[in-house]
C-alpha cells in the first residue's frame, strides 16, 4: 500500500505546516504533497519555503504561485465580490512584498497539475479543479457540475484544494466509471467549522483501489494569530485563526457552505432597518463589534424571534386570516411536552423573543401555564382576539398580571364595529374591546394591531385616539397591510423570495414566516417537518435566504405580523 499525505493552502502558516510534516510522517505517509497556495492570509511566507523544500514535500503551483511567480498584481483567486477582493488584495500585496526572489523563482518551476499511476490507480492532482487552477470545487455543487469536473479528468482519483473546505465523495463519470474526489482542505486557516484545527488528507492506494481520510490537525494557532497581529494584517485574519470561523472572503462561499458558518453577510451589504415603520422588535442594528461580517440570524434580516402556533382552531372565521384558521380548521394543537422542548431549544439557539399565536391560543386549556413557563426564559408576546376572557379563562388570565416579559397583542380593525365586524363577525368588536379593557384593568401590557383593508383604510389614527382613552398608548398601536394568504385572495403578496424570514413552528413542522404557517395554503413557506431539529431549521432558513439573494443580489423587505 502507498500512503500519500496531501495538503493545500498553507497561507503563510509555518506553524501548521510543521505540524503537518510531523503528523503525516507519524501516520505512515511515504509521500507528502502540497497542492499550492503557499501564501495568503498569514504573515510569514518566507518561513514556509525551507519547510517545503527540506521537508521533502512535492508541490504544485496554485493561483498564488502562478501570480507571484509571474509578477501579477493580484492573486487571481477567482473572487467576484468587492469585499472579498479587498481582503484578498491585502493578503496578496503583503505576501508579494514579503516573498524573496529565490522563492518566487522556485514557484515558477512548479507544475499546476500532476498525473501519474500509483499502485494501479490513475491519480490526478490539481489546485482548484480539473477545469481551472482557481476554480472552486465545492461539495454543494450540483451533480452536473461535479460530473463536468470528473469528466474533464477521467482519473480514478482527483485531489484538489483552493476552496478551503475539505470533503470527499465518489462521483460517477459520463463514461460510467467512478472517480474518488478528495478536497484536502487547507492548512492556513480553519474550515469555517468553529475549531482551531485545520485539515489535510491521507490517500491510501493499493492494487487499483483508493480510499481517503480527512485528518483534523492541531497546531500552534496562537503563534499564528500573534504573528498576523504583529505584522499589522487585518484583525479579521487573526480572529479566524482563533475562532475557527471565516470573517473575510465570505461571499464566495455557496449558500449551503456559508449557512453552516457563524457569519453570512458583510456589514457593508446590510441596510439599516431600525426605522422600519411600526416595528416592535428589539433594536437589530448592525453590530459595532469591529468585525467586517455578521451573522444573518439575529439581524433585521432574520430576527431572533420564534413564532409558535399552539393551535389552528379559532372562535372566529376572519375573511382574511392568512393561515386559514376558523372553528372548522384542523386544530393541530401543540402538546405541552413539545412546547417545553421547543422553549429549551429556543434558548439554546439564541432566540430572545417568543410569539405565541394560533388560531386562538386561549382555546388551549393550559395556555396560561405555557405562557408562564415561557416567560421564565424569553420575552413573550401572545396574540389573541381577546374575546374569550370569561369564566375560567378570566381567572387564568389574572395569573398573568405582573408577569415580567409578557405582552398581549390584540387585533382591532378600526375605531368602531363597522370594519372590524365586517371581516370578523358581528359583535366581535365589542367583545374584543371588553377583553382589551379587562386585560388593561389587570395591569397586563397590551398592544394592538390593525389590519388595513378597503373597509378601514386611513383609520389608524382614529383607532390610536380611541385606544389612548382605554389605557393603550399610541406607540403600542400599529397598522399592518392585508396579506394575500390563507383565506384572502386580496392584499400584499408575500413570499420567501421577498420577505424577511421569521422562523415559525407548528405541529406540521417549520415555516419561513408566521403569515405562511398553514401547509395547505402556503406550502411554499414550509421548511421541514416536526422531526427537523430547530438548529437545522435555522440553517435551512439561512441557506434559502442566501440562495434567493444570489439570484439577483437583492435583499427582502420586512413584513412583520406583530406590528
TrEMBL record:
Name of the protein this chain belongs to: Radical SAM family protein
GO molecular function: catalytic activity; iron-sulfur cluster binding; metal ion binding
Assigned keywords, A-Z: Iron, Iron-sulfur, Metal-binding, S-adenosyl-L-methionine
Domain (Radical SAM core): residue spans on this chain: 300-524
Family: Belongs to the metallophosphoesterase superfamily. YfcE family.
Pfam family, one: Radical_SAM
PANTHER family the record matches: PEPTIDE BIOSYNTHESIS PROTEIN YYDG-RELATED, RADICAL SAM DOMAIN PROTEIN
